[in-house]
Amino acid sequence: STFVAGLEKLKKGEIEPYGVPLAGELPIDFKDIRIVGSYDVDRAKIGKKLSEVVSQYWCDVNSLSDDPVVSTGVHLGSVKNLPIEAEGLEDSMTLKEAIERLVDEWSKLDPDVIVNTCTTEAVKPFGNKEELLKAIENNDKGRVTAPQVYAYAGTLYAKKRGGAAFVNVIPTYIANDPAFVELAKGNNSCGFGDDGATGGTPFTADVLSHLAQRNRYVKDVAQFNIGGNMDFFALTDEGKNKSKEFTKSSIVKDILGYDAPHYIKPTGYLEPLGDKKFIAIHIEYTSFNGATDELMISGRINDSPALGGLLVDLVRLGKIALNRKEYGTVYPVNA
Fold first, then answer.
1. What is the domain count for the chain?
2. Which residues pair with 259 in a beta bridge?
3. Which residues lie below 8 Å from residue 260, measured CB to CB, with a gap of 6+?
C-alpha cells in the first residue's frame, strides 16, 4: 500500500522522489508505471478495489490512476500465526491448477514486471528444476512455498508472453536458487532478488565498502534490527528469521573478499515500534600501525516507505532488463 500510495503521489507531482535512489537517472518515467493487478491472501482485502485497501492505511489517497480489484493469491501456510484470515487458490485446487490460473490471469493483465512482496518465510531451495517440477506435479504443498509458486508461474508466463521480469524482494531463494535461474534463462524471464534490504544492511554495506576502499581490515561486524510491523512479527518464527539472516550476512564476504566474524540478522519484534524499526551497527577494524577503530551507528527507519522507494526503481529496472533481454538472474541488482 505504501508503494501504491507513494507512486500515485509521484505521478501527480504531490511529492518529491526522495527515497527513490535512481529517481531521475533511468529512461523510464514514474508516470509510465502502471499497476495492472494486485494479489493478496487476506480475505478482508480480496475482491476489493486496490484504492479501497490503500485508503485503509493512507487517508490522503482517495483514488488511483490504476485501480484493479485485488485477486486471490497463494499462501501455502506462509501467513500462519499472523492475525489475518487467509484464503489462497491452493485451498480449492492443486498447485498445478493454481499456477495455471495465475498464468492465465497474468496473460490477460499483460504485465511486464511481476513483484513479489510476500511475508518472509522459511524456505528450502530446490537447487535444480527437476526437484521443483516434481514437487509441483506431486502437489507437495508442504515443500513448495508461495514465492516459489509465483516465481515458477512467472517463468511460464514469460515463456508464453515472450518475456517478463520477476522481482523478489523477500529473502526466499529465487534469484539465488539454481533451479529458478535455469528456468528464467530458458523461459525469457529476468530475475531480480533476493531481499529488498531497507534498514541496517544498506548502511553496513556502504560502510564496509568504504573501509575496503581504504584498506582497513574489518575484525568483526554486529548488526541488528527490531521492528513492530507484521514482517517482524513473522520473523519471530526461527525458520523465517534464518532465511533473512542469510541474505543479510552474505554481504560481508561479497564486499570484503573475506568472511569477517559477524552477527547480522533481524533480532526481535516489539509492537510499539510499528513500521519505524530500530537499527544498530557496530564495526571494529584495524587501521595503520595496528590501531583498532570502532564505528557505532543507530537509528530509526520507516520500513515500508524505504522499500516502496526501491520498488519504484526495481519495476523500472525490470522493464529495462526485459527490453535488453537480460534473461536469468540480474546479478548486479541485489542478488
1. 2
2. none
3. 218, 219, 220, 221, 252
Mark whether 50 and 26 lie in a shared domain: yes
Report yes or no on whether pTM surpasses 0.85.
Answer: yes
Grid coordinates of 120? 518472509
3-24: b or e for each residue (b if 16 or more CB lie within 10 Å)?
bbbbbbbbbeeeeebebbeeee
Dist CA 89 CA 146 (whole Å): 11
* Predicted confidence (pLDDT) per residue in 153-174, tens digit: 999 999 999 999 999 998 888 9
Same domain, 226 and 104: no
- The residue whose grid cell reads 508466463 is 157
Nearest to residue 132, comparing CAs of 142, 143, 123, 118? 143
**What SS3 class is residue 17?**
coil
Beta strands, E only, the chain: 38-40, 70-72, 113-116, 164-168, 189-192, 217-227, 262-269, 276-286, 292-302, 328-329
189 and 246 part of one domain = no
Instruction: Report the interhelical angle of 129-137 vs 178-186 (nearest 10°).
Output: 90
Q: Which domain holds residue 105?
A: 2-196+309-329
Same-domain pairing of 157 and 130: yes
- Does residue 240 share a domain with residue 123? no
The predicted-structure confidence for 33-86, as pLDDT tens digits, reads as follows: 999 999 999 999 999 999 999 999 998 888 899 999 999 999 998 888 788 899
Q: How far is residue 150's CA from residue 153's CA, in Å, rounded to a whole number?
A: 5
**Alpha-carbon gap, residue 294 to 281, rounded angstroms:** 10
Within a domain: 334: no
Cα three-residue angle 282-226-312, rounded to 5 degrees: 95
